[in-house]
Amino acid sequence: MSFWKEALPLVLLGCMMIIGCEASAALADPEENHPSDSNSSRKLAENQSKSTPDSTDKEKDPDATKLFASTEANSLYMVDREFAANVFDTVDENVRNEFFDVTTATKLWPQIAAKSRGTILDSKTIEELSQRINAALAQLNASHTQFVTVNDEHYYFLRSLFDSFKPEAERKKTPQAEFIGAGLGGPLCQANQVRYVLNNSPAVAAGLKRGDILLKVDDRPFLGMLSFTGTAGNTTKILIQRGSKTLELTIKPVKQKYYDAFLDLTRKSARIIPTAEGPVGYIHLWCGGSAGEILSEEVTENLSQTKGMIVDLRDGYGGNSLQDLDVFYRPVSGYPEFRTFGRKDKQVTRFTYSGPLVTLINGGSRSGKELLAFSLKNSKRGALVGERTAGAVLAGRMIVINDRCALYLAVMDGTIGGKRLEGIGVPPDINVAYPLSSNEDVQLESALKTINSLLKRRTEINSTKPGNHPAAKRSSTTHRS
What we know:
By secondary structure, this protein is α+β, with helices and mostly antiparallel strands. It folds into 3 domains: 3-163, no CATH class; 177-256, PDZ domain (Pdz3 Domain, Roll), CATH 2.30.42; 258-390 and 425-480, 2-enoyl-CoA Hydratase, Chain A, domain 1 (Alpha-Beta Complex). Helix content is 36%, strand content 19%. It has helices at residues 3-7, 17-28, 38-50, 57-60, 71-77, 81-98, 102-121, 126-138, 153-163, 168-171, 202-206, 258-269, 291-300, 326-329, 368-379, 442-462; strands at residues 146-149, 177-179, 182-184, 194-197, 213-217, 220-221, 236-242, 245-251, 254-256, 271-273, 280-284, 308-312, 338-341, 345-349, 357-361, 382-386, 395-402, 405-412, 430-431, 476-480. The strands form 6 sheets. A 6-stranded mixed sheet has the order 10-11-12-15-16-19, sandwiched between helices. Strand 11, helix 13 and strand 12 form a beta-alpha-beta unit. Helix 12 (258-269) runs parallel beside helix 13 (291-300). The model is unreliable at 1-9, 14-64 and 473-481 (pLDDT under 50).
C-alpha cells in the first residue's frame, strides 16, 4: 500500500497544528495582556470571589464559577495535578513510541519532557495545560503534532473527522460542540483573532470579519471554545475589537459535528461568478475526506456549464487525496459524455472538466491541500494564486487521552514526486499577499483576473478552429419536454 493511501486514515489533515502552537505562545505572553489569557482570567475570578464578604474557601480558589456561564464548561476548564500528570504521561509515552522520527523521539524528546514536566504538572486550567504541553511539543519542530482539548476547535474537528472512518455505531458517540464558523489564530494573528470566516456560517450572519479580535462572550472574557458552551441556538452577545473600535455583535452558534459543518459549507460555497469572459465556477474546499467527492459533484453538475473554475484551498483543514483532482485531469476522449433519453426526460452526464483552472492557496493551505497544490503546479494544469502553503506535510494520528483532550501526533513522513514538502511548502505562480487589514479579498480578485486572461487566450485560439466543445464534461441535468 502506498504511503499516502495508508496515511489518509491517520490523517493528512494540516489543521493549523504549528499555528496552534503559535497561538498558545501568544496566549501565554503576559505582556500582551490578551483577553483570552487564562492567567488574567483566573486573577479576575480570584478578585471577584474575594470581593464577596461571605465567600467560601472554595470560591477564593481560581475556580470556574466566575469564568463561564455554563457549569459544564467550568468543570471542564479546571484541572488538578493528578489530571495533568496522567495526561502528560500519556503524551510522553506516545511521543517516545509513535513519533515518526525515532532519533528525535528517543534522544531529544526525553530531555524536553524532563525539563517541562514540573511546569506542566502545575497547570490549574485546561488552557494552561494545553499551552505548556504544546510548548514542549513545538520543540519537536514537526507539523501534525499538537495537544488538543475541548477548549479548541481543532479537537472537535479532529475527533469528528477520525470518527468518520469508524462504524456507524461508534460515530454516534462523536462529540458535538457549538460551531460558530470562524477560524481563530494563525501566523501573525493573536490566538483570539479571526483568521478566516466560513461562508454561510453563524460568523457570517453575525458580521464577524477577518482580523476581528474576540474579547468577550456574554460579558465574560473569551477563553476559548468553552466560552460558547450552552449557547447553541441562542442569540449570544460577543464583544470584539475591530481596528481601533470595540463593537458588540450577536451570534447564534449551532451544535453539530465540526467535520459535518465543514463539509456542508464546502458544498454551500459553490457558486457561479459572472465575468467579462463568461461565467466562472468557484468552490472553497474547506477540508478533505468526503469534501473531495463534493468538489467533483459540484464541478461536474452545478458548475458544469461554466467557462473556467476557481478552486479555493485557503485555510480550513487538509485530509485531501490526489484523487480529489481527477475531474480536472480526465481526458475528454476517455470520458465522453453520456446521454439518455426517455419519453419525457433526457439526461446528459459528463465526467470531466477541461476548462481553465485557477487555485487559491495561502499559509493556511496545509498537508493534503499541499499535495493538490503540488500536483497542479507540477502538471501545469492550473495556476496557483496567493501565498506559499504551510509546509505541513506529515501524517498524523489522533490519540484520545480522555473525554477532555487528545494528542494529534505525526507518525509518518513522506515525499511527493520525490520531494519532501515538510517545512518548505508550495510557492504560488502569482504571489498576492492578503493582509488581515484588507477589506477586499485581493487574492480572489487576482484569481478572477487570471482566469479571465486564460479564457481570453483560449477564445482567441479557438476562434481559428471550427467548433467548440463545452468546458465541462460531466454533469447530470434533466430536461423536461
